[in-house]
């Protein structure tokens, strides 16, 4: 089987789309970055770095973040796939 190299996604269009969806959803939920970070029991820089595109979000974090915002992860994931 040939080796497959995954390309870096931190600055990709897909990553930026994910961040845009998370930021818009956070704002629609009426949460600041500090509010969301506090509910996640993380420093506010955790959310700041994600929203600035400096940090990737893994699947487990994505699920946790969306549920803290009162949303279902599959709903937001579907938006990403559009």
How would you portray this structure in words?
By secondary structure, this protein is mainly alpha-helical. Helix content is 62%, strand content 0%. Helix 1 (13-28) packs across helix 5 and helix 2 crosses helix 3. The longest helix is centred in the first third of the chain and has 16 residues, at 13-28.
Question: Mind sketching the topology for me?
Answer:
Layout: H1 13-28, H2 33-40, H3 44-51, H4 59-68, H5 73-81
**Percent helix among the residues?**
55-70%
CATH fold assignment: 434 Repressor (Amino-terminal Domain)
- Largest pleated sheet: none
Task: Give the count of helical stretches.
Answer: 5
Q: Mean pLDDT across all residues, rounded?
A: 90
Q: Given the C-alpha coordinates, what overall shape results?
A: globular
Roughly how many Å apart are the termini?
A: 31 Å
Spell out the CATH superfamily. lambda repressor-like DNA-binding domains
CATH class: Mainly Alpha
SSE pattern, N- to C-terminal: HHHHH
Structural class: mainly alpha
Percentage beta strand: under 5%
Counted beta strands: 0
* Rg, Cα atoms, Å: 13 Å
> Ranges with pLDDT <50 over ≥5 residues?
none
CATH architecture: Orthogonal Bundle
The number of distinct structural domains comes to 1
